[in-house]
Design brief:
Blueprint lengths: L15 H7 L2 H4 L3 H17 L5 H19 L12 H13 L1 H4 L7 H37 L4 E6 L2 E7 H26 L1 E2 L15 H8 L3 E2 L3 H6 L2 H27 L7 E2 L18 H24 L12 H26 L1 E2 L1 H8 L6 H10 L4 H18 L8 H7 L7 H4 L2 H6 L9 H16 L1
Parallel strand pairs: 3-4
Antiparallel strand pairs: 1-2, 5-6
């Protein structure tokens, strides 16, 4: 077994079970590219500052790049006995370069090295998540553009409330997802601060140039307190929080799709490629993707709670507890990417059933508010109009008719204000098309929303 980099202080070998318990190579190996990228920048700075010989710096950089190519092309496998990805890369470099390789770790610690690696890794992941969210928004916008006049019932308390359009409904999710992108952008901004140079906790006596490393790695700022530099995991928690909210939005959308594709609603039909059947009931077509998204939302919430709980009692600076950050945040990232990459084509291929939506909208007296508004526009106080309309609904239920088919003389029994034009006022098309207020369901109002979303996506 290879000697530990910190073995000089100890007089006996660490118990094998402790080695296994300490090791993080099984999950932090995914950061190998980021670890090498950070090490190349660090070696560049060491050489430029004269902390190590410039030629040795160049040799180290060549060696690191060769290791990267060998890992990428499968010629170099990760050593499961390595304590972590940092030790694996450094040990491999030393194996290849001898004493020169040992100079790489000058003026840094694994504490600031891992803080750097995880920031570099998560920066890239945020960009990938954002790209998936933008693709989902584009699919939603396309759905909306095709269904500007597809009338459906809007709900409160899962009860039919007022008529809207399918375009209006799905564009609500576009707005939610735009906010998710904003949260990811905010997280990226606070994440993009360089911790390297904090060393173990107290900086270094070497004349390092942190601004140069910042420039090489594309960070916006340098962390100004070395204790904070190695012990901060706010960015992991913030990203897990942003992902949790994003998953909540996907879960809400999933719940509606589960309802919509049921026989009780039948507003949409999922493509066969994105549904499953039953092992014993041949008629079944199950929305498993959306159900799994709902379930995996709870899993991501657990990742966020893991990070919050892990950090809540830690004194400054670095503690081994913080090794638990990676599995939690990696799982949250992997889960949301998996959910998005499956949800997008499912939504893209589902079939909308406008006739069923309109049929549902025709029931449940969802035009009652428009009936009351009709009276208000003719001078009746709203509360009086509300009472009259409620009485009319009760009469319709008693007679087994709708407001559209209730005879005019029944209307006039409650108010002489009613005229033949009431039927036009309470038609579903009028109810929807006249709601032109900003943010409303009328086609022109929804087109404003679509234009806004497109502008944000292209901005």
């Amino acid at each position: 077994m290879a000697a530990k980099m910190w073995a000089g202080r100890f007089s006996k070998e660490v118990d094998e079970r402790v080695n296994d318990f300490n090791s993080s190579i099984s999950f932090d190996a995914r950061m190998y590219r980021n670890d090498i990228e950070g090490s190349v920048a660090h070696a560049t700075m060491l050489g430029e500052c004269g902390i190590i010989d410039l030629e040795e710096s160049k040799t180290i950089i060549r060696g690191l790049k060769e290791i990267l190519v060998d890992i990428d092309e499968g010629r170099l496998q990760f050593d499961p006995n390595a304590e972590d990805i940092h030790m694996f890369v450094e040990a491999e470099l030393t194996n290849r370069l001898g004493a020169t390789g040992k100079r790489l770790h000058t003026a840094r610690s694994r504490n600031d090295q891992v803080a750097l690696d995880i920031r570099l890794y998560l920066r890239n992941e945020i960009e990938e998540i954002k790209a998936l969210v933008k693709k989902l928004i584009e699919v939603i916008v396309t759905l909306a553009e095709k269904n500007l006049k597809t009338v459906m019932p809007g709900y409160t308390h899962l009860q039919r409330a007022q008529p809207i359009t399918f375009a209006h409904h799905v564009m609500a999710y576009a707005q939610m997802l735009l906010r998710d992108i904003g949260r990811l952008d905010d997280t990226y901004k606070r994440m993009n601060v360089l911790p390297l140079g904090s060393c173990a906790l107290a900086g270094t006596t070497y004349p390092i140039n942190r601004e140069r490393v910042k420039e090489l790695l594309g960070f916006d700022e340098v962390m100004l307190n070395s204790l904070d530099g190695v012990s901060d995991r706010d960015f992991c928690i913030e990203l897990a929080s942003a992902i949790s909210i994003l998953m909540m939005h996907l879960s809400r959308f999933s719940e509606e799709i589960v309802l919509w594709c049921s026989w009780e609603f039948k507003f949409i039909e999922l493509d066969d490629a994105y549904a499953t059947g039953s092992s014993i009931m041949p008629q079944k077509k199950n929305p498993d993707i959306t159900e799994l998204v709902r379930g995996k939302t709870g899993r991501v919430y657990g990742d966020l709670n893991t990070l919050l709980t892990m950090m809540k009692g830690l004194s400054l600076a670095y503690n081994k507890d913080m090794q638990e950050d990676k599995e939690a945040i990696f799982d949250a990232v992997d889960t949301v990417k998996l959910c998005l990459s499956t949800f997008i084509p499912m939504l893209e291929t589902m079939r909308v059933l406008p006739e069923n939506m309109r049929s549902a909208a025709a029931k449940g007296f969802i035009n009652a508010t428009d009936c009351a508004d009709y009276l208000v526009k003719k001078g009746l106080p709203f509360r009086d109009a509300y009472k009259i309309t409620g009485t009319l609904v009760a009469k319709c239920i008693e007679m087994g008719v709708t407001l559209e088919t209730l005879p005019l003389d029944e209307y006039k029994k409650l108010s002489e204000i009613f005229e033949e034009d009431v039927y036009d006022a309470i038609s579903l098309d009028t109810c929807v098309m006249q709601r032109k207020s900003q943010g409303g369901p009328a086609p022109e109002a929804v087109m404003e929303q679509i234009s806004y979303v497109k502008e944000k996506l292209n901005g």
